[in-house]
Every structure is written in structure tokens, then in C-alpha cells.
């Protein structure tokens, strides 16, 4: 009996057990012993690998504009996690924004602050762009921060473009955005997608799209991505380095379908339908109101999160898990409650979070994690 009690769990048995353990709990497990460390990483590699987290940053929309909290959804573990930050790195009186990816930023008259590591442990503070902007489109293309449009009324060029090179630590001015975007040159009306080499900018209503090469600083286009005349609103992203579009079909009072397309060809004239959102999830996105004017998206690798900015209680997740195979899921937004609907502003980012990232967060002694009991996947 004593020998049985002292027997260690080893090999495949331990790895199969660890695949059911939440990622944040695998961090201490990896420090038990060398054999456990090997089992943890083997389990993540062969049984249940990490998946991109959806991170919801909340701040009070009323004075004193303090941080209201940060929660994250881990699809690998199917749990919501609360991030407790001892010393918030930013002045939350400023407007916190994201570019629907990992990039999180604050733009003020005195500086540009941005963070692009998964859990936003490190923030960079640089001089602001030369042109004052209130609602620009912002994206990270490789090691460059792209900022365009969204200028104040008194600025001469509403289409101006500036790029901050993170490595060189300096600003560059570039050719302005195409003139056809003059009436929609802000993040309210434009959807952006960025790879390490190219930026794509699309008018959400018309589907008119341009690409920008930050190395040559040249714009190309326009390309019409609305191959279906029933699309009245759309957003773009990159899935496996392929330009992909999510579109609402019908009208805001009667959204018949939400579809996804993969766009190919030099002019993106080849449009391949790859997914259709289940009707019950379309209804969940509408929320209490029967209409759906727009959607916001967060995209990372094979994961896409979709939500209604007017009714953020429900989130829809789309995942590619094989060649030509995908699945839809829905979950409750754990950051939303009756109070937060009116009192908080939410900004969403999506990031690949691994044990190394969790280890840095815990090691900083500024962040700790706790598992929430609600917000379970449906």
C-alpha cells in the first residue's frame, strides 16, 4: 500500500491528464520536476496545444476613467481568466484602443504609447505623430506602426500617413492614402489587416480595398472585394497569411446571413466562400435588438472572434482545425454585466499566449491570474 501511494504518475498517463489542466495551472506544474516539465510541454505539443487568447480590456467611461479590469478567454482550456494588475502601466484617462489584433495603443497630444507583446507587459512611449489625429487607422506591419487618416478638421491633409519604425525609433512620412478614401479615412469606416510585409485597407461599406507596401511606401488598388451585391458591411483579416473577409448580407434591419470568403489573385478577383455562420449564432449577435448594423472582429492565426459592438454580451468564435475544416462556437462575454453595459468601454485584442508569456507575467510580480466560474463555452 505504501509503495502504491508513493508511485509516480509517468509517461503518456501524465501527459493525457495534463491535457485537461488549464494553461495557467500548467505553469506551476512545469516546475515540479524535470519529468513533469517534459510531460507538460509534451502534452501541449501532442495532445492539447495552446490556442490564441481573446483579451478584453475594460475601463470606466465616466470619471475618474480608471481601469475596470482585464479578462481573457482561453479556448484551449475553455475558461475565462481574470488578470489582476498591481500597477497599471497607463493613465486610463487616455483612450485605450486596439487594431483588432495584438496591438494595443494610446494616442495623445504628448505621446504615442503602444504594446504588442501577448499580455501587454511592456509598453513603448514615443513622441506623437506630426499630424494630430482623433480616429486614425492604426496597424503594426512587421516592426512598423502605421498611422493614417482620422485627422482633426483643421489639418491640411485628412489622408496623411505616418510610420513609426520601432527598430530605428523614428517617424517617417509617406504618400497619403488614395483620394477615393477621403470621405471614409478613419477607423470608424475602414477595416485593416496587416501581415509582416503588407497592409490592407478596406471601406467597410463599399468593399473598395487598397494595399500598402511600407518598404516602397507605395499604394496599390483599388480592388473590389464585394463580389456579392447583398453585402452591406464587411471586415477583413488574415488567416494563414491569406486575405479573408467577413460580410453581413441583407440590410441592418434584416441580416440574412454572415459569410466568410478567402480572396485570391493579384487583384483579389477570385472569391472563395469558406464558411457561413449558423443562423442561431447570427440571432445571438443581434442581442435584444433585431437589427445588426456592424460587427467588430479580432483575428489571430486560425481563430476569429466576432462581436456586435452595440450588444457585446455574446461572442462568436470561428476556428480552422484542419484542411478545409472549421467550426463555429459561441460564448458569453465574461466582461459584460448589467453595470458594465453603460459604465465601461471595452477594447479587445487577440494573442498567442504560451507558458513563457505566463511565466514572464508571474515573474514580473505585477500580474496574477484567477479563473472565473462564468462565461463557459456553449
What class, by secondary structure content? mainly beta
- The pLDDT mean sits at 88
- Helix proportion: 10-25%
Please give the radius of gyration in angstroms.
22 Å
Give the DSSP E fraction (strand runs of 2 or more residues): 35-45%
- How would you sum up the major sheet? 5 strands, antiparallel
Please give the order of strands in the largest beta sheet.
Answer: 24-1-2-3-25
Q: Got a strand count?
A: 25
Number of helices: 7
Q: Sum up the overall morphology in one term.
A: globular
Span between termini:
43 Å
Unreliable residue runs: 1-7
Short description:
The chain has 378 residues and is mainly β. It has seven helices and 25 strands.
How is this structure best described in words?
With 378 residues, the protein is mainly beta. The chain is 14% helix and 43% strand. It contains seven helices and 25 strands. The chain has helices at 2-6, 11-18, 23-29, 34-46, 279-286, 340-343, 355-363; strands at 53-60, 67-74, 79-85, 96-98, 104-107, 112-115, 124-126, 137-141, 144-148, 161-165, 170-174, 190-194, 199-203, 208-213, 218-224, 231-239, 242-251, 254-264, 270-276, 296-300, 303-308, 311-322, 325-332, 344-351, 367-372. The strands form six sheets. It has a five-stranded antiparallel sheet. A four-stranded antiparallel sheet has the order 4-5-6-7, with no helix packed on it. The chain has a four-stranded antiparallel sheet with strand order 8-9-10-11, with no helix packed on it. Strand 13 and strand 14 (208-213) form a beta hairpin. Helix 2 (11-18) crosses helix 4 (34-46). The longest helix is centred in the first third of the chain and has 13 residues, at 34-46. It is globular, with a radius of gyration of 22 Å. Residues 1-7 have low confidence and may be disordered.
Amino acid at each position: 500500500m505504501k509503495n502504491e501511494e508513493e508511485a509516480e504518475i509517468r509517461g503518456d498517463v501524465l501527459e493525457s491528464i495534463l491535457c485537461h489542466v488549464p494553461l495557467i495551472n500548467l505553469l506551476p506544474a512545469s516546475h515540479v520536476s524535470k519529468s513533469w516539465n517534459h510531460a507538460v510541454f509534451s502534452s501541449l505539443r501532442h495532445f492539447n496545444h495552446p490556442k490564441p487568447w481573446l483579451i478584453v480590456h475594460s475601463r470606466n467611461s465616466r470619471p475618474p476613467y480608471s481601469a475596470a479590469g482585464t479578462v481573457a478567454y482561453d479556448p484551449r482550456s475553455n475558461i475565462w481568466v481574470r488578470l489582476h494588475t498591481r500597477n497599471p502601466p497607463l493613465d486610463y484617462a487616455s483612450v485605450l484602443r486596439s487594431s483588432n489584433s495584438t496591438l494595443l495603443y494610446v494616442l495623445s497630444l504628448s505621446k504615442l504609447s503602444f504594446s504588442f507583446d501577448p499580455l501587454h507587459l511592456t509598453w513603448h512611449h514615443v513622441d506623437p505623430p506630426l499630424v494630430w489625429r482623433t480616429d486614425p487607422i492604426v496597424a503594426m506591419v512587421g516592426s512598423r506602426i502605421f498611422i493614417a487618416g482620422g485627422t482633426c478638421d483643421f489639418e491640411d491633409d485628412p489622408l496623411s500617413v505616418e510610420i513609426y519604425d520601432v527598430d530605428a525609433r523614428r517617424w517617417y512620412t509617406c504618400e497619403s492614402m488614395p483620394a477615393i478614401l477621403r470621405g471614409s479615412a478613419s477607423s470608424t469606416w475602414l477595416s485593416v489587416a496587416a501581415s509582416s510585409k503588407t497592409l490592407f485597407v478596406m471601406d467597410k461599406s463599399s468593399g473598395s480595398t487598397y494595399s500598402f507596401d511600407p518598404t516602397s511606401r507605395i499604394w496599390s488598388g483599388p480592388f473590389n472585394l464585394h463580389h456579392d451585391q447583398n453585402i452591406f458591411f464587411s471586415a477583413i483579416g488574415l488567416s494563414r497569411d491569406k486575405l479573408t473577409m467577413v460580410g453581413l448580407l441583407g440590410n441592418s434591419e434584416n441580416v440574412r446571413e454572415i459569410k466568410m470568403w478567402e480572396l485570391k489573385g493579384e487583384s483579389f478577383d477570385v472569391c472563395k466562400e469558406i464558411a457561413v455562420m449558423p443562423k442561431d449564432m447570427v440571432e445571438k449577435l443581434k442581442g435584444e435588438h433585431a437589427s445588426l448594423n456592424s460587427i467588430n472582429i479580432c483575428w489571430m492565426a486560425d481563430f476569429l472572434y466576432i462581436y456586435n459592438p452595440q450588444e457585446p454580451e455574446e461572442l462568436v468564435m470561428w476556428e480552422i482545425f484542419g484542411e478545409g475544416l472549421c467550426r463555429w462556437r459561441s460564448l458569453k462575454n465574461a466582461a459584460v454585466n448589467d453595470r458594465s453595459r453603460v459604465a465601461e468601454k471595452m477594447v479587445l485584442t487577440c494573442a498567442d499566449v504560451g507558458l513563457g508569456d505566463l511565466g514572464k507575467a508571474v515573474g514580473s510580480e505585477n500580474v496574477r491570474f484567477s479563473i472565473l466560474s462564468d462565461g463557459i463555452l456553449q
